[in-house]
Amino acid sequence: MLNTSPDFKENVRHAMADAGLQKALDRAKKPFALSRANAVAGLPEFEALRETAKGIKNHTIAHLDYYLEAFTSQVESKGGQVHWCRTAEDARNAVLGICQRVGARTATKGKSMISEEIGLNDFLAEQGIEPIETDLGEYILQLRNEAPSHIIGPAFHLNREDWEESFRAAHTHLPADRVFAEKRDIQAEARAVLREKFLAADVGITGANFLIAETGTSIIVTNEGNGDLTQTLPRVHIVLASLEKVVPTIEDTLSLLRVLARSATGQEFSVYTTFSTGPKRPGDLDGPEEYHVVLLDNGRSNMVGSEFQDMLRCIRCSACMNHCPVYLTVGGHAYGSMYSGPMGSVLTPAIFGADQAHLLPSASTFCGKCESVCPVKIPLTGMMRHWRERAFERNLSPATGRYGIGIWGFFARRPALYRAVTRIASWSLGLAGRKRGSFRSLPLAGAWTKDRDMPAPEGETFFARYAREQRSR
After folding, report:
1. What is the DSSP string of 332-380?
2. How much is the pLDDT for 164?
3. Structure pTM?
4. Residue 72 DSSP class
5. Which part of the chain is the 4Fe-4S ferredoxin-type domain (predicted)?
6. CATH code of domain 43-298
């Protein structure tokens, strides 16, 4: 996926003017949040589980080297192979090397955000290997040549008519009178086309929700079963995962799974939770002949020990974006990254650099809703504030904002002067706006008044009100 994070402001303008996107976002605002709330209400120990999940992830990150080595040892003892990759290029080349060695011409893919992060699809296609997305949402996006806009609902931004239009354009065998009135019609059409792809694939590529150090097992969680077909039918199974996906034991994994589905979709458990441990053994009826795990760093090891270490706890449930007023207004594509919403505003600068993604941490009201619903209690607003500080220190933030803060700081260090100036400014603005009650434009406030009126101040300043209340007490 092309990183367009530097164009965030322009992306937002396009998103706000896109009637189809706004329709899709309006439709999707309530279901995710309501489903999560109902699922949490049905599990009295959910808050205790959140604390347990946080502890498991903190412990693992503190001993990340140990658990990664243990995982690797277990994978190799069962006939699999682990490929350690520092960069996105290393990971792409590792996958390509496996595909070329076995003469692969096609590769089916289960949902994998890491493949989006490293731009795998375009890379494989350039090398003559056809990647085939098998997740329903990812499949329609591949037909449309679009990137995912959401972690678990990649086609979050589309409406039913968009699906029908894309199917008719790509599936030329469809009769003119074929209707797609319901979701099952869309599913049936995709299933008919993809079943042949599953059977013909040379390599299957999946992501991983968790990697279990105790057993060398990878886990993928889906609601469609496409992950199972992707990793059992082809001769070769490749798992794409980042370093922080490792978890010590099966018991720890089960604790994390209990908060994952409830936070993501409001389910107690996803429909399919599949454990894969190595290639098939003598006597197994199915399974891959080869099992590979491509472990990606891509900046994550630099986060260990930094103020952004807590971000490595993320289990990609998308609860933060499902409750974020900014994400639910502009959609995922506006962020210009495969990771959007609050978690993307923290993770994208770590991957692509603050110079590329310094605008994203400002895409937050700091309402704190993301933190309140995070199943592993990541302090997202605090980390976004750290990125804002770095952007300010490196002069990446807009000059007007930096100068404005400098002027504010000058007065804030002189309380008496600050109170006097704010009192005069409030009185003057109140007087000027008394007739209409608001301002359609103001100097230095064009970004605000371009889309909305600025209310005229009424009454006394906060400091004056506070002093008066204190005296009355």
Report:
1. SGGG-SSS-HHHHHHHHHHHH-HHHHTTGGGS-----HHHHH-TT---H
2. 83
3. 0.89
4. H
5. 305-333
6. 3.40.50.10420
